Amino acid sequence: MSLAVPADLVDPLVLANRILYDQGVVDGLGHASVRHPTEPGVFLLSCNRAPGLVRRQDITCYDFDGNTLSDQKERPYLERFIHAEIYRERPDVMAVVHSHSPSVIPFAITHNALKPVFHMSGFLGEGSAHFEIREAGGNTDMLISSSYLGAALARSLGRHSCVLMRGHGSTVVGTSLQQVVYRAIYAEVNAKLQLGAQALGEITFLNAEEAQLSSDMNDGQLPRSWSLWVRRLGEIDLDR
Ligand code: MN
């Protein structure tokens, strides 16, 4: 079976990849995906390509077992199971970003939650979730390279918007590509600010209601940030 990639999601997903690279959230590794709009058991993700180099022809449909459904000869990402199992577990999630953005790592390895230090990161709510791969898989290469490990990660994520992965990175989820890109960028910003503020004294985080209100407010402003991030990319060819 070959499933056509929905044309209207290809360019936004290519742009999401390029933006995340331009903003320093991903490097050679990391990935962004979006759920298929009419086939809820399918998601779109690039084949195994550095996010900054992802092109239209790289975008591929996958099922929740990580099988390629599109006409795609290139190999898939090893960690596509992160996306697959989160979409399976969370019907509300429409887009996912996985990265190793550096400021988040200290929180992941010390089991400290990211919490919202300002209105831009209200989506963090009462704090990020934490995933310990050793509990699920013993000693591994740290990658989520199977459905089994993906399902364990999805369980750790629970209802949160962000899960920190010990010794590895983080994964954020959202209800749209624009929102999840925003969240990935501001998870990294929040981590930097939270680390810096900790050295000065006790932090007053946004409380749950402040976090929800500011998150809702920011969701109405997403196109403003997105258009700036796209403009920063300059004149780019999405086919190469
Ligand atoms: Mn990874």
Keywords:
binds manganese (II) ion; 7 strands; 8 helices; 240 residues; alpha+beta; L-fuculose-1-phosphate Aldolase; 39% helix; seven-stranded mixed beta sheet
Could you outline the blueprint of secondary structure elements for this entry?
Blueprint: H1 7-22, E1 31-35, E2 42-46, E3 59-63, H2 80-89, E4 95-99, H3 105-110, E5 129-131, H4 133-137, H5 147-157, E6 162-165, E7 169-174, H6 177-198, H7 208-219, H8 222-232
Parallel strand pairs: 5-6
Antiparallel strand pairs: 1-2, 1-4, 2-3, 4-7, 6-7
Helix pairs in contact: 1-6, 2-5
Bound molecules: manganese (II) ion.
Structure notes:
There is one protein chain. By secondary structure, this protein is an alpha+beta fold. The chain has one domain: L-fuculose-1-phosphate Aldolase. Helices cover 39% and strands 14% of the residues. The chain contains eight helices and seven strands. The protein has a seven-stranded mixed β-sheet, with helices on both faces. The mean pLDDT is 97. The site of manganese (II) ion has 6 residues, from loops.
Question: Overall pLDDT, averaged?
Answer: 97
Fill in the CATH topology. L-fuculose-1-phosphate Aldolase
**Terminal residue distance:** 27 Å
Can you list the strand order of the major beta sheet? 3-2-1-4-7-6-5
Question: Count the helices. How many?
Answer: 8
How many strands, which pairing sense, and closed or not: the largest β-sheet? Answer: 7 strands, mixed
Tell me, briefly, the overall form.
Answer: globular
* Secondary-structure-derived class: alpha+beta
The tally of strands reads 7
The CATH architecture category equals: 3-Layer(aba) Sandwich
Number of domains: 1
Task: List bound small molecules.
Answer: manganese (II) ion
Strand content: 5-15%
CATH class: Alpha Beta
CATH superfamily: Class II aldolase/adducin N-terminal domain
Which residues sit in consecutive blocks of at least 5 with pLDDT less than 50? none
Q: What portion of residues is helical?
A: 25-40%
